[in-house]
Design goal:
Elements lengths: L1 E6 L2 H11 L6 E6 L9 E2 L7 H10 L4 E4 L2 H5 L2 H7 L4 E2 L3 H8 L1 H11 L6 E4 L2 H9 L5 E5 L8 E4 L2 H13 L10 E5 L5 E9 L3 E3 L4 E2 L2 E3 L3 E4 L4 E4 L6 H21 L5 E11 L2 E8 L7 H4 L7 H9 L14 E9 L21 E5 L2 E4 L2 E4 L3 E9 L2 H13 L6 E2 L6 H9 L1
Parallel strand pairs: 1-2, 1-4, 2-3, 4-5
Antiparallel strand pairs: 6-9, 7-8, 7-9, 10-11, 10-16, 12-15, 13-14, 15-18, 16-17, 18-22, 18-23, 19-22, 20-21
Helix pairs in contact: 7-8
The structure holds adenosine-5'-diphosphate (ADP) and magnesium ion.
Length: 424
């Protein structure tokens, strides 16, 4: 089969490497891919948001199956457009991708169908929001409705901070139309858990759970980033918690989307917080998470292409989805300074991947045959092993063998997961 993968980060590299393991895969195009992905797929410089460009390319290149990985093209209706050409896709249609595309939509969905989430109010007027904030309890959480590159959520410690956030989002429109509406939400406390799930509108099959590390610096200090590392499984996601999530969150979400006439097909990402009152939904994503995918897919035993085809054909219930025992750790190597200003264009030297080692390239380009850094998050060093300790050790050992001038990594990926495991 000729497969088209839309996207060009570490997540897409992990998806592509896994798809390559399938016997059915003959060729993979990555749009746009990146300098590292070029080793595993033919990269074509068409942006993931250029839906017309993607559609034209698919028309001209006999694509049998498309995987749309990033949020923007999904929310823009890339799947609908490709399906209209007769190309089957892995990924939700526009009317289901809204579960991520609008936080107001997903909050209303959860309220309507009794899915546990933080209490919240929606505002489309900055004045009314600010009046409400005068009486609010702090910390309080302010969320822009639409996509905001992962920067649309502010945890305000005081009225002053909250007011400033509302003004930026709603008046200065720092996220454009994404800030036309906001949510003001109850601040929840507890460990966070990411669960990606395959879903075909009828069946939902959760993958191995994971834990992200969002802050730039050790001990969860510093600025919020796209994610500095991950481990899987997440030790807080016990069998008991998993069962509760299935009953109170996963199945009800599938049913709710169906009842709304928006069946969800693709990868549904549940961002959960394990509060004293049980698991609650922090957010939904309509796609694989990055860098969660980089620890989840290496643990997948079954054929990813077969699963994706089954999802797109609505026969997920008959498909085996098996994960390896053991654990995985991903350490992100970033350009020093990320998520603020950083320099790039430095040559990257990579070791050969050993057994159960994976290097997923996120921000790199090829120049005259030389791989050079081109982004904030440059790559992920991943190791799978029999246990979390060994996976962490292995991921750091692999990361140490990778070089570029201004490489920066957190030194404590997985530390909290290990501590939690020891407690239980
Ligand atoms: N109600 C809440 N209580 C406490 N923390 C929250 C709450 N909502 C979001 N957060 C924190 O903010 C982060 C980002 O929020 P999220 O809703 O996942 O938005 P996005 O990923 O689109 O930026 C979460 O991972 C979580 O750490
Ligand atoms: Mg999030």
């Amino acid at each position: 089969m000729v497969i088209l993968v839309v996207g060009g980060g570490g997540r897409e590299h992990a998806i592509i490497k896994k798809l390559k393991e399938s016997k059915k895969t003959e060729k993979i195009y990555a749009l746009p891919g990146n300098g590292g992905i070029a080793a595993d797929a033919e990269c074509v410089p068409i942006k993931a948001t250029d839906i017309d460009g993607i559609v034209d390319f698919a028309k001209q290149n006999k694509v049998d199956f498309a995987v749309v990985a990033p949020d923007d093209p999904l929310v823009l209706g890339c799947v609908d457009r490709l399906e209209a050409l007769g190309i089957p896709c892995f990924g939700p249609r526009k009317n289901a991708a809204i579960i991520e595309g609008s936080k107001v939509f997903s909050k209303n969905l959860m309220k309507k169908y009794g899915i546990p989430t933080a209490a919240s109010e929606t505002f489309s007027s900055a004045e009314k929001a600010i009046a409400y904030l005068k009486e609010a309890a702090y910390p309080t959480v302010i969320k822009a409705d639409g996509l905001a590159l992962g920067k649309g959520v502010v945890i305000a410690q005081s009225f002053e901070e909250a007011e400033a956030a509302v003004k930026e989002i709603m008046c200065d429109k720092v996220f454009g139309a994404s800030g036309n509406e906001i949510l003001i939400e109850e601040f929840l406390v507890g460990p966070e858990i990411s669960v990606l799930a395959f879903a075909d509108g009828k069946t939902v099959v959760p993958m191995v759970s994971s834990m992200d590390h969002k802050r730039a610096k050790d001990n969860d200090e510093g600025l919020n980033t796209g994610g500095m590392g991950t481990v899987a499984p997440n030790p807080y996601y016990t069998e008991e918690v998993a069962k509760e999530c299935m009953e109170k969150i996963f199945l009800p979400t599938m049913a709710a989307m169906n009842a709304e006439g928006r069946p969800f097909s693709g990868c549904l990402y549940f961002g959960l917080m394990l509060t004293k009152n049980g698991p609650k939904v922090i957010e939904y994503n309509c796609r694989f998470g990055d860098p969660e995918t980089q620890v989840v897919l290496p643990l997948l035993k079954s054929d990813l292409l077969e699963i994706m085809l089954a999802v797109s054909q609505g026969r997920l219930a008959e498909q085996t989805v098996e994960f390896k025992e053991g654990a995985a750790c991903c350490v992100v190597l970033a350009s020093d300074g990320y998520p603020k200003k950083y320099a790039s264009g430095y040559e990257i030297t990579l070791p050969n991947e050993g057994e159960n080692e994976y290097v997923y390239i996120a921000g790199a380009k090829k120049e005259d045959g030389v791989l050079k850094t081109s982004g904030g998050r440059v790559l992920g060093a991943v190791k799978t092993a029999c246990c979390l300790e060994k996976a962490i050790e292995g991921a750091y050992a692999l990361a140490e063998k990778i070089h570029f001038e201004n490489a920066y990594m957190r030194r404590d990926i997985g530390k909290r997961a290990l501590a939690a495991k020891k407690q239980s």
